[in-house]
């Protein structure tokens, strides 16, 4: 299992997803994100009209809610910047935002 029963995943844009992890520290969130990354990398996706399979990877940006966050956009912005950094580092990475 990659997410816990009380975590809330959802689609957040075209090919972006979000997961709300209540009561979770930055280190715990990184551990959960790494579990998700590892699980995705083990998937084999069948190609349409072919017997071939393809593997996929995922890059993840992680951010914590901090007391100065007055709007949801603040934490989303930090997670998005961490995601960009993960992609710049070569993809298939997990990065904790500032």
UniProtKB/TrEMBL annotation:
Domain of life where this protein originates: Bacteria
EC code(s) of this entry: 2.7.7.65
SUPFAM superfamilies listed in its UniProt record: Nucleotide cyclase
GO biological process: cell adhesion involved in single-species biofilm formation; negative regulation of bacterial-type flagellum-dependent cell motility
PROSITE patterns in the cross-refs: GGDEF
Entries under NCBIfam families matching the protein: GGDEF
Protein name: diguanylate cyclase
Organism per entry: Alteromonas naphthalenivorans
Lineage start: Bacteria, Pseudomonadati, Pseudomonadota, Gammaproteobacteria, Alteromonadales
């Amino acid at each position: 299992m990659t997410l816990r029963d009380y975590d809330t995943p959802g689609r957040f844009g075209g090919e972006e997803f979000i997961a709300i992890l209540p009561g979770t520290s930055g280190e715990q969130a990184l551990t959960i994100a790494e579990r998700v990354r590892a699980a995705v990398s083990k998937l084999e996706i069948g190609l349409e009209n072919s017997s071939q399979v393809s593997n996929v990877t995922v890059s993840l940006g992680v951010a914590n809610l901090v007391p100065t966050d007055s709007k949801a956009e603040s934490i989303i912005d930090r997670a998005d910047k961490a995601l960009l950094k993960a992609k710049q580092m070569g993809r298939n990475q997990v990065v904790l935002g500032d």
